[in-house]
Design brief:
The chain is α+β, with helices and mostly antiparallel strands and 335 residues long. The protein contains 9 helices and 14 strands. The longest helix is centred in the last third of the chain and has 22 residues. The relative contact order is 0.10.
Length: 335
């Protein structure tokens, strides 16, 4: 949004339920009343509900369900997360856009959000269902001081932030868990996924991009048929609509706190919060290692300090999985 309509919007917000005359707005902005009217029309085009009355001026009656900067950044109390903030109506992938920005020198905390994606990406080349104006699709540029060997723990830290944000919004901490390494589940169904892509410099991470998709308001019947039994949304679980702007603010604030802790004390400082939502230990798993590796069947034991999953295979050997795809047996199934 250009500065002049943004100033009109802020003035209308300050007025609350009251009316502001075109003359007052004209004087405050230093423009003609005709230009004020054009700025009001620009706001209406973006979905703001503004009443106008001859001789009475203008009054803001409602804001659109959009993740505009003037909505999300208003009231966002982060120091570096989502600064700067790039809003797109649609794109193929927020991760692609964020990676290009990072490659061009975008700073730590640069954030991209889209109302919809035409080619949302998940791990291992999968797609991520991304209908417009219902969920949160966002990617964040991070420049952590971390080795390549420790980079996988960043995605585990991010999973903590996403899971805690989902639980706080639902008001039900017990229903939300983390499936290694990047899925957040509600009652065993995927509600959010995280994709991490990085650029290396020698043995260190130059930058990485965290792509986060959270199913907020999509109805269960609107998921593709192949996802209806395995995916869910906060609305499908709670029966109520989720304020996407409020959720975005909560997630960015939580993610900043988690990443600050990660930077100062490493993943071990976050391990208790991760393990509080990590319900895989003791469960039977089938693990397909990334890159066409072997399939391991056994019982999940836990995670190592570098984020690798430990599995006791059916042959009795303990195996470490750095990257792979996990299928869980039903809870309570015998080992």
């Amino acid at each position: 949004m250009s500065p002049a309509p943004a100033r009109v919007l802020e003035a209308l917000r300050e007025a609350g339920d009251g009316w502001l005359s075109g003359e007052l707005l004209s004087g405050r902005l230093g423009v003609s009343r005709a230009q004020v009217w054009k700025h009001v029309q620009a706001l209406r085009t973006r979905g703001y509900r503004i009443e106008g009355e001859a001789g009475g001026g203008y009054r803001l009656c409602g804001s659109p369900d959009r993740l505009y900067p003037e909505e999300v950044l208003r009231g966002l109390e982060t120091r570096w997360m989502a600064h700067p903030y790039h809003h797109l109506e649609t794109t193929d992938s927020t991760n692609r856009v964020a990676f290009e920005l990072a490659s061009a020198g975008a700073p730590h905390g640069t954030t991209v959000v889209a109302e919809g994606q035409t080619a949302g990406r998940g791990r291992l080349g999968r797609s991520f269902f991304s209908p417009p104006h219902l969920n949160l699709y966002t990617s964040v540029v991070l420049r952590p001081d971390v080795s390549l060997a420790s980079a996988p723990t960043v995605i585990l830290a991010a999973a903590v932030a996403v899971a805690e944000s989902v639980a706080a919004t639902l008001g039900d901490a017990e229903a939300v868990d983390i499936k290694w390494p990047n899925d957040v589940q509600i009652d065993g169904r995927k509600a959010a996924g995280i994709l991490m892509e990085l650029h290396a410099e020698a043995a260190r991470v130059g930058f990485l991009v965290l792509g986060i998709g959270v199913n907020l308001n999509v109805e269960r019947e609107d998921f593709p048929s192949e996802l209806r039994e395995t995916a869910t949304s906060l609305r499908a679980v709670s029966g109520r609509s989720v304020d996407r702007v409020a959720f975005a603010r909560l997630l960015y604030g939580t993610l900043e706190e988690v990443m600050d802790r990660f930077a100062t004390a490493g993943f071990e400082s976050l391990r208790p919060r991760f393990e509080a939502r990590f319900q895989m230990p003791g469960r039977r798993v089938d693990v397909s290692e990334a890159g066409g590796g072997a399939t391991i069947q056994g019982v999940a034991l836990g995670i190592d300090p570098d984020g690798a999953l430990r599995v006791r295979a059916d042959d009795g050997r303990e195996r470490r999985v750095v990257a792979g795809d996990v299928t869980l047996s039903p809870a309570g199934a015998p080992p």
